[in-house]
Amino acid sequence: MIHFRSLMVPLFVVMGQSISGFAAEPAGLPPILHPKDNLPTDDKISLGKQLYFDGRLSADNKVSCASCHDPAKGFSNGESFATGVEGKKGGRSSPTVINAAFQKFQFWDGRAKSLEDQALGPIQNPIEMNLTLDAVVAKLNLIDGYKSQFQKVFGTDVTSDGIAKAIAAYERTIVSGNAPYDRFKAGDQAALSEPAQRGMALFFNKANCVACHAGPNFTDNGFHNIGLPGGDEGRFAISKSVGDRGAFKTPTLREIAKTGPYMHDGSLKTFEEVISHYIKGGTPNPQLDEELFPLKLTANEVADLVTFLKEGLSSPDYPAHTAPELPK
């Protein structure tokens, strides 16, 4: 199995409080960690939310963060690939932003180690938002509403560092916990139906899902080659380690019913297709993860496992954020 080293970054914990109306830690999740140089405030989160939904951060004024990470589509885009300026298609699906606050790495290949590092990448990508940082800073500084907010939050005009910090602060409010699974584990035996309980038992035992989807966020924060065909080298392009060839970040399974299609290439459209892939043990290749092997699940067991994923990990407190009024 591929392992990772924990990030040695000084962090500050905001616990037991509400910021901009968002609970800091929904039931079942650990404390939210914030970098010491980017502690959250109401004004910063509000600014970040505006930036997140604003297409003016792109060259054609149409593509925003929310275009590929849409609250109505599980903070993904409901398609196999991301779509950027002029309808250009990327080569990977849009990973959900839900609970990205708890991820050790960002992007499918983990090339960013924080939400701040991640935020500026799509802006500069020529097939996503296609603006240089100098260009987006100059553009936003012409908008009085942004300029005044940056002065209030950061004490400066618009800067790329401020853009990254504000977006990251907002994204740390996009969290999902308090699912039926959490309430069941806390003692509410009625929180999960009997099929979902059977599916949960399969998840943690016979189906071996927990080998990678472990912990409160249902991810080990690692990278795995799960035997998908195609030439995308995944984590290898970043680490240059042969063992990482074809390996991609383990996504959270929180709100998984809303974030299809699945996998880094969006190649599997349904839970049943995903489970079928794992039943086969993936496509053999030299870097196939050692935790993958053929499974023997009956049709009824597959149905129960699907029920657990849909019912057990979907929260009634889903962060159904809506676009704010944008500054002028």
Quick structural gist:
By secondary structure, the protein is mostly helical.
Could you characterize the architecture of this molecule?
This protein is mainly α. The protein folds into two domains: 11-171, Cytochrome Bc1 Complex, Chain D, domain 2; 180-312, Cytochrome c-like domain (Cytochrome Bc1 Complex, Chain D, domain 2). Helix content is 31%, strand content 5%. It contains twelve helices and six strands. The strands form three sheets. A two-stranded antiparallel sheet has the order 1-4. Strands 2-3 form a two-stranded antiparallel ribbon. A hairpin with a 2-residue loop joins strand 2 and strand 3. Helix 1 (42-52) packs across helix 7 (160-171). The radius of gyration is 20 Å and the shape is globular.
**In percent, how much strand structure appears in the residues?**
under 5%
DSSP helical segment count = 12
CATH fold label of the largest domain: Cytochrome Bc1 Complex, Chain D, domain 2
Task: Kindly report the spatial arrangement of strands forming the biggest sheet.
Answer: 1-4
User: H/E series, N to C?
Assistant: EEEEHHHHHHHHHEHEHH
What percent of the residues sit in helical stretches (DSSP H or I)? 25-40%
> What is the β-strand count?
6
